[in-house]
DNA sequence: GCCAACGTTGGC
DNA sequence: GCCAACGTTGGC
């Protein structure tokens, strides 16, 4: 079992949306970055745990946990010409992008803000806290996962 | 709204 | 295959 962090804009899909339908499998679509796609396609496994990170909001930070309920399959939005995520170069025979499904697991009492993550020295290797980082799907080591959980515990 | 950082595109 | 131009991300 592995750990991950997925970014989402809460206007699009938030931890509250997941929590509102805890039995539902949510399509995690719209990943359009090759490095992020390769993680989804090659490494994300069933029942892996995922920190849900809220980006482009105030304040950005980790809001809760989801689990992987379906491993990678072709992202349907790449074939949909009315979608923002449409990709004319993708075909059903040769899909370019993949999606996974996630399920709600937990919402933290308080969001763990990015500035706290940045202050915590042992997390400095995470792409998340590095300047200019744009990776929307990233692995989280066992140690990082435990350290972040303890930060959550401290502030709750 | 600004803009730094970064990924992608396309001409050569 | 280089690299300038461009578009996007995402914190501030």
Structure report:
By secondary structure, the chain is of the alpha+beta class. Helices cover 22% and strands 31% of the residues. The protein has 4 helices and 6 strands. The longest helix has 14 residues, at 142-155. The protein is globular and about 50 Å long. The two termini are 26 Å apart. It binds a DNA duplex (12 and 12 nucleotides) through loops. InterPro entries: 5hmC_binding (IPR052181), EVE_domain (IPR002740), PUA-like_sf (IPR015947), THYN1-like_EVE (IPR047197). This is EVE domain-containing protein. Residues 2-150 form the EVE domain.
Number of helices: 4
Give the % helix.
10-25%
* Name of the CATH first level: Alpha Beta
Strand order of the largest sheet: 2-5-4-3-1-6
Please, what is the average pLDDT? Answer: 95
Report the major sheet. Answer: 6 strands, mixed
Anisotropy-based shape: globular
Residue stretches low in confidence (pLDDT < 50, at least 5 long) are: none
The total count of strands amounts to 6
Radius of gyration over alpha carbons? 15 Å
Strand and helix order: EHEHEEEHEH
Structural class: alpha+beta
Layout of helices and strands:
Elements: E1 3-8, H1 15-20, E2 26-28, H2 34-42, E3 49-54, E4 61-74, E5 98-113, H3 114-119, E6 137-140, H4 142-155
Parallel strand pairs: 1-3
Antiparallel strand pairs: 1-6, 2-5, 3-4, 4-5
The protein binds a DNA duplex (12 and 12 nucleotides) through residues 7, 9, 33-35, 55-56, 58-60, 114, 131-134, 136.
């Amino acid at each position: 079992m592995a750990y991950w962090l997925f970014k989402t804009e809460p206007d699009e899909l938030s931890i509250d949306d997941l929590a509102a339908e805890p039995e539902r499998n949510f399509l995690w679509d719209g990943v359009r970055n090759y490095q992020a796609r390769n993680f989804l396609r090659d490494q994300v496994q069933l029942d892996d745990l995922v920190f849900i990170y809220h980006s482009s909001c105030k304040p950005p930070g980790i809001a809760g946990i989801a689990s992987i309920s379906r491993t990678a399959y072709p992202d349907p939005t790449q074939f949909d010409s009315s979608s923002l995520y449409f990709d004319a170069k993708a075909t059903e025979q040769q899909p370019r992008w993949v999606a996974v499904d996630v399920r709600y697991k937990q919402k933290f009492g308080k969001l763990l803000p990015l500035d706290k993550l940045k202050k915590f020295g042992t997390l400095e290797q995470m792409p998340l806290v590095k300047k200019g980082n744009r990776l929307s799907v990233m692995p989280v080591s066992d140690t990082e996962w435990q350290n972040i959980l303890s930060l959550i515990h401290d502030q709750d």
